[in-house]
Amino acid sequence: MGGVRFCCAVTCVVLTLCGVASAEELFQVERGLWEPVPDEVYLQEVARKVPTDAPVDSVALYNGMCYAVMNETVYVLNGDAFEPAQGAPKNVREVQAFEGALWALARQGLYRFQDNKWTKMDDREYVDLCMHLGVLHGATKEEAYRLENGRFVSIQPKGGYLSSDITVQMADGTQVLADPVRLGPINRMVSYSGTLYFLRPGRLVLLDQRIVNEYVNDWGMLPSPTTRDMLALGSRLFVTTDRGLAVLRGAALTTLKGEDGLPYEDTTCLAEGFDGDLWIGTTTGAVRMLKDDWHYFGAYHWLPGDNVHSISVGDKVVYIGTDRGIGIITYEPYTLRKKADYYERHIEEWGHKRLGFIHLLYWGGDDTGWIREISDNDGGHTAPYLAAMCHKYAVTGDEEARQNAVDAFKAMVWLEQITPKDGFVARAIWSTVGDLDKRARHGSGGLPAKWYPTADGLWYWKGDTSSDEIDAHFYSVSLFHDLVAKGPEKERAKDHLTRIASHIIDNGWLLRDMDGKPTRWGRWDPTYVQGPYGFYARGLNGMEAQTFMRTAYAVSGDEKFARGLQQVLDWGYHNYTVRQRITFPPENYAPWDDNLAFRCYYTLFRYADDPGLRSIYLRSIERTWEVKRVEHVSWFNFAYGAITGNDCEVERAVQHLREWTLDCTEHSYRNSHRHDLAPEPGYVPYGGGTRAISPRETCVKRGTRSALPYDGGAGGRRVAEPTGFLRDYWMARYHGFIEAPTVTDPDLVSVKPREGKQSGAKPYDGPGRPDDLIPGIE
Asked: Are residues 535 and 643 in the same domain?
């Protein structure tokens, strides 16, 4: 096809018009150095919380029902509320489930609930129960008993216990004891390695037939005298302390601490999981310990409160009692395909869509409920959804995905069409009668917002447009042009991109607002890029200018944009591209710049074919991804792999998607207190921080989705749109990083629509978008 050749002092560039249709052609990568990951069924966490007025001191599951102890009273969970358990004893400290019954450990005795009837089984005050050699055993503070014929009888042998102290042993094996040997004081009791182990305050002992053995461990010691709970699981015996989790294996005592992966060391309680895992309560959240991983569940996303008192595990469900109620975590079978479907349903049900745009929601109060935010970057926040639908349509041919893409594309076009200046793009559009959100008073850098009314009085549009918005348009609209657009849509996408590029060139390489002045951040002129004011931004802004010109030429063939690219090369902008990612000083680094850079990479590499420039761009993305890969964020991993064909740690990126929470509410979260915040082996945090925090342990994020901040959230007063997941998943499917699921059960690859379900913002009720944005298409 036709092209134009031109030269600069540094390199000779050949621009070639290209049409793109397939994943292989998009970046001219023949075979990626990675293996695709099957979209297999996995277990997805689903959160539910039941707040209470009093601390939940104990929880137990019996006959599929959750029982809890609060203020020494037994309650049963009925739906979303606790009710007093009828006929239950008073002054109960703990409930446990054994032998097909629920047991209540009360101050005045031990009670059994079975066949819907409470029976008092013993008058003594018990501290723990356990199964040992197939028989239920119980322990008081001083003694142990076993259940025989409906009665608890002491296990103490005739003549009492013997001591493990060799100084009291005689030559014939007898012992001379000045005082009787005690089992107690007992806090906990478990069956381990065929015998009974007892947890005293700060000490382990075991019962070796008649001998109370106080020398359990040959190596190591408990990390603290503050011990709380004990559990035997396979070859190991675990003890919670305030300085880590003690582990007895054989006769060796070791300690799991933050350096070993334990998120928090002040541990409180234990429960065996449903899949060989171990659940650990702490004073600040709950932990799931798996064979090769640790999952942290904190307030306020997963738990009503931080301090965990008790955990009970059922079949793929976990009940976690805290000082403010119960957190319930269920594990449901999902594929990533089903998760994508779930998020699409969420976007519709919660009302994130408006006039083709995608919006975050915030809580406006009981009178107004959830409100769609009219943001500083409505195009920027719509771009990932448009990209997601483009990739989905390219993968599936689904007509609904295509219509969603067209709808979002029209919204992007409208942002340019609504302004009186050709190629000048609005940040946002606000309806004078249909939007509940107020017009923002602030704009870029704290400056007053610039809102302009339309002649018909129906709308205001926001100016002072930044480079962020222009990146979003070139990234998403070029994808629409390449993968989705047909007939007049393709021409309109080309026109949209070239109008913006022309505005930039014609106005001296900047965005010129209605007052004739440059916008705060929309500048690519050498006075800014190479001057002290914009010096810190020269790498990213210079790459943006190259992206805009190269893309506009690729879709149009207009030599104006070839000359535009030559101009920025003559200015030497490409010389700043390799080190566009700022790592120092910290005050010059904005985390959202990574998102902007990868939008440019994903666009620029599709059209750049000059070997000299591609070498620069490749070195740039290699350097940037080496900084970003510590975060395991799928957007950066997949984009890097698609562009270069190199190993992009696909498995970690897929795991990142699986760890996204289904709850899109931005609950507050805190991780800065954790003891496991150390860099992972093989990863260096060149850009600051220490290690990535899992999406499971933060919240649904938008934009750059940095995984390095430890704390955040919005107190449950915002709901984020999960478009980042949708874009990453369908991009990965398009490029072959993730294979299509092979399961045929529709419930594992999709979610059912819920008619009439409205959970978030009320439907938009205002004037409609103009219907003449694409000539020939309504």
From this structure: yes
- The pLDDT of residue 581 is 87
Per-residue confidence (pLDDT) for residue 211, from 0 to 100: 85
23 and 109 share a domain?
Answer: no
Residues 382 and 279 in one domain: no
What Cα–Cα distance (Å) separates residue 465 from each residue in 27, 165, 350, 598? Answer: 30, 81, 28, 20
> By residue range, what is the domain housing residue 193?
47-333
What token pair was written down for 766?
């205002």
**Other CB atoms within 10 Å distance of the CB of residue 470:** 28
Domain boundary among 283, 315, 333: 333
Question: Whole-angstrom Cα distance, residue 274 to residue 313?
Answer: 7
Is 373 inside any structural domain? yes
> What's the CATH number where 397 sits?
1.50.10
156 lies in some domain = yes
Same domain, 346 and 328: no
The yes-or-no verdict on residue 664 having pLDDT over 70 is yes
Closest by Cα among 476, 410, 432, 334 to 767: 432
Helical spans, DSSP H, in 448-580: 467-483, 488-506, 526-529, 538-556, 559-570
Over the chain, what is the mean pLDDT?
93
How far apart are the two ends of the chain, measured CA to CA in Å?
32
- The set of residues, in sequence order, having a beta carbon less than 8 Å from that of 162 and lying 6+ positions away, is 175, 177, 181, 210, 211, 212
Average pLDDT for 166-186: 77
Give the DSSP H or E segment for 357.
strand 357-358
Query: Do both 329 and 357 map to the same domain?
Result: no
Nearest Cα residue to 148 out of 140, 158, 138: 138
219-251 confidence digits (pLDDT tens): 999 999 999 999 999 999 999 999 999 999 999
CATH number where 160 lies: 2.130.10.10
Residue 708 has pLDDT above 80, yes or no: yes
Does 756 reside within a domain? no
Counted domains in the chain: 2
CA nearest to 97, candidates 86, 82, 112:
112
DSSP secondary structure, 429-475, as one string: EEETTT--SPPPSB-GGGPBP-EEE-TTSSEEEE-S--HHHHHHHHH
Answer whether residue 746 shows pLDDT above 90.
yes
Q: Is the confidence at residue 274, as pLDDT, over 90?
A: yes
Identify whether residues 459 and 545 lie together within a single domain: yes
- pLDDT confidence of residue 9: 36
- Comparing 698 with 590, the larger pLDDT belongs to 698
Residue-wise pLDDT for 62-105, tens only, equals 999 999 999 999 999 999 999 999 999 999 999 999 989 999 99
Exposure string over 266-289, b if 16+ CB within 10 A, otherwise e = bbbbbbebeeebbbbbbbbbbbbb
143 and 65 in a common domain: yes
517 found inside a domain: yes
Please tell me the pTM assigned to this model. Answer: 0.94
Rounded Cα distance, 341 and 325, in Å:
31
- Contact between residue 405 and residue 747 where contact means Cβ atoms under 8 Å apart: no
Q: Of 308, 333, 358, which marks where a domain is finished?
A: 333
* Per-residue CA distances from 95 to 53, 126, 745 (Å): 19, 11, 39
Cross-strand partners of 219: 252
32 and 57 within one domain: no
